[in-house]
Design a protein that fits this description.
2 domains; five-stranded parallel sheet; 13% strand
Amino acid sequence: MVIGLCGRMGTGKSEALKCFASLGLNVIDCDDVSRLVCLPGEKCLKELVSVFGADILFEDGTLNRPALAKKCFSSHENTKKLNEITHYHILSYVRNWIKQKGKNCVVAAPLLFESGFDKECDVTLALTAPFEILLERMNGRFTEADFRERLSRQHDDDFLKANCDYVIENNGTAEELYRKIALFLQCVGA
């Protein structure tokens, strides 16, 4: 079984992955994979440089994420190019990982629907939480204005509720989330 996990920033996807792992499932986070496929020498990074220019690299050849973001989020066309390149490489990595693990895999994919990976999942699960909790969880990482702007680029809870098979409201403690995930796994027979 492949479970696709999604949710907006601050909904607790990383904490949910810890819960799934503690319950014996194989877990992977596409945010981590995105860093792996953009290491020096990787095909993904080479493609990004060929499309967006060498100035997206630091002097040591590593990806300068702020420089890439500045170029990519300046237009919808550039964002689309970025997603086409990175989604291909991230999903290739994830597919190979799933083949190696075999069963009971949880893939945390913030862009689950945008990448089309939702169609490859047996079950999709969204995490949601009220804005005030999201903001509190992101405290110190962004200003409120920056956080609101970033959230505005993500699917809202209504979209996730309408398109995911299951939804968990993560508005409490880590222990409460663990119990909700254990109940979810019982429901899906994993």
